[in-house]
Amino acid sequence: MQSYFLWTLVVLALLGTSLVSGAKDADHLVCQLPEGSLQDLQENLEARLNGTEGQLQDIQNTLVSLQESLRTLLAEKENRNPEPAAIQNIPPKFERILDRYFYIEHNLEVDWASAADICRKINGHLAALKNEEELAAIQLKLRNDWYHLGISDEGHKGEFTSVASGKPAVFLKWNDESPENAGKCVQLKNGGFMGDYYCSERVNFICQLDTDV
To answer: What residue spans of 122-204 are helical by DSSP H?
Structure first.
């Protein structure tokens, strides 16, 4: 799109040069032509001027159209990947993944309760995911086999709740063995599936910054 604007500027510059050159030529002709030809010359110059004004109007219309196209493209980009809700003082360990902030712990392996406590200490919450797109984006960043998520059916068998929002989990993608209800805490497998396992199992974990999901 930048090339359109550059070409437009070039055209305007050429037109400006043409107008200046035309004015100089007109002065020269006025001095040399007999009086009877001045009217013809004036009509000729007016015709050229009218043609130039038409060209300038076409260029202006093109610029307006380009501006509208640019606004449309920017709006579409913003709608596809909106800015996350304003969060003050984002902790240094968190990174933006799509429209939310996460911290993925790759080294430390702890039980589910310890993972939830660590997330709280860094001003976050043990994470829950909201859709397939978010799962795919996080999946690309995983290094190990299993990660604790902030989803559990503790106290409500079979009803899996997000610890961050306190609401039912909005997205679950079970493996073939789950939910088996033997375990209470949900883990994410590096492979894109979730399972419910014992909360005492020591694995890595994922934190989120918001409480929306």
So the answer is: 132-139
Radius of gyration of the chain measured on its C-alpha atoms = 33
**pLDDT score at 120:** 97
Distances (CA, A) of 169 to 109, 116, 127, 174: 24, 16, 11, 13
pTM above 0.90, yes or no: no
Average pLDDT, the chain: 81
The residue ranges of every structural domain in the chain are 2-80, 95-208
Tokens 């949900």 belong to: 186
Pick the closest to residue 207 from 89, 113, 120, 108 (CA basis).
120
Whether 190 and 203 have beta carbons less than 8 Å apart is answered as: no
Mean pLDDT on 148-162: 93
Q: Which two tokens stand for residue 147?
A: 């990660």
Q: For 76-115, what is each residue's pLDDT tens digit? A: 755 565 555 556 689 989 999 999 999 999 999 999 999 9
Which segment, 3-7, 22-26, 123-127, is predicted with the most confidence on average?
123-127
Split at pLDDT 50, 70, 90, the class of 130 is very high
Q: Which two tokens stand for residue 110?
A: 């702890």
CA distances from residue 78 to 12, 36, 83, 173, 207 in whole angstroms, order as listed: 33, 65, 7, 28, 26
CATH superfamily for 95-208 is: Mannose-Binding Protein A, subunit A (3.10.100.10)
Question: What is the helix (H) or strand (E) element at residue 142, kind and residue range?
Answer: none
